Amino acid sequence: MIPTSQIVPLTDAELCARLAASGIAFHRTDHPAVFTVAETAPHRDMMIGLQTKNLFLKDKKGRLFLVSAKSDARIDLKRLHETLGASGRLSFGSAELLLEKLGVTPGSVTAFAVVNDREGAVTMVLDVNLTTGEEVNFHPLVNTATLRIGRDDLVAFLRETGHEPLIVDLPVPPDGQNG
Description:
Layout: H1 12-21, E1 26-30, E2 52-58, E3 64-70, H2 80-84, E4 91-92, H3 95-102, E5 122-127, E6 136-138, E7 145-149, H4 151-160, E8 166-168
Parallel strand pairs: 3-5, 5-8
Antiparallel strand pairs: 1-7, 2-3, 2-4, 6-7
């Protein structure tokens, strides 16, 4: 087995080729680099479907989670560990850990990144609000483009990578603030 540090992550072009080879339809929109959900606002008019945000988190025992939610979701990070069955409160994974495990950098975090988690170290979590049937938008491993994909195709892709998604109703903070 190749050590994690030697695994070369897929490029966005390789990801798109893999999707196409799997018969998964997608629509690509190229745009300037964006690093936050707020920075995507000027480009949303050219993109239909649900916009997303993605959080790379770890628990006290080092378990890793990739949480994908609607871009406007308010998530109670203080209680999320209870919903996920994690050990203690969750914290954000470092940029180094993100690159090592998912092969992406901050600003490019995406559900598609589990394709680079060949060891199955990351638990994929989907907000139930992304499973309504509407198409969803995620970066294709880089933050200079967005792919629109059908919900069923997304779930099929995640399963194909060995990441059965944990679909949950994410806890909302009682005070209206993110945890």
